[in-house]
Amino acid sequence: MLKRLVAVAVLVAVPAVFIAANPAGADHDRVYAPCDPEDTRPILERVWYIDYQSGDMLRFDDPWWRERPGLAGYSNWHHQCRLGITGVWQAAPILPQDHPPTYVVETRYDLFSAEYEGWPAKETTDLLAERYPAHTPGKRHFPLSAAVEFLQRGGKVGGLDFVWNSAP
User: Fold this and answer.
1) Which residues share a beta bridge with 70?
2) What is the domain range of residue 77?
3) Is the pTM above the cut of 0.70?
4) What is the pLDDT of residues 88-114, one digit of tens each?
5) DSSP assignment, residue 45?
6) For every residue of 16-68, which 3-state class applies, written as one string?
7) Are residues 140 and 79 in the same domain?
8) pLDDT (tens digit per residue) in 24-83
9) How many Å apart are CA 59 and CA 43, to the nearest integer?
């Protein structure tokens, strides 16, 4: 009976420790796991994320996030983000880590960010103009507005690359 009481006390105390160690309100100088609902950093400051498996901080563009462990179309990023969206980070929090004291907040905006934000027209058009420069010889050109609409409807950048690289 005493063992059960101790076990119950431990089960109640452990979540309390996590809650006390992870107060509400995000600090922009902290790094969170992907899609952690507690992460209130502006999207442009979400440069670093914690890999929950190793606890390491990785940049958003680290190749590890794109690795596909066995399932086509399902990357390490998708796996950890899905855990964040379904509330796993709240049930078993991945505590944010502090950046080093010399850290300067980085900002980013790339096609990854644009996709995450639902392909905003102006930003996406600017990014596509950099990726597919006008008047490039030997490339098939297309209206960037049509490309943005294609992406907003679920198309992939790889499809645009295919058209761009096909012979005119």
Assistant:
1) none
2) 25-107
3) no
4) 877 877 778 877 666 677 776 888 778
5) G
6) HHHHHHCCCCCCCCEEECCCCCCCCCCHHHCCEEECCCCCCEEECCCHHHHCC
7) no
8) 334 457 888 888 888 888 877 888 888 887 888 888 888 888 888 776 667 888 888 888
9) 13
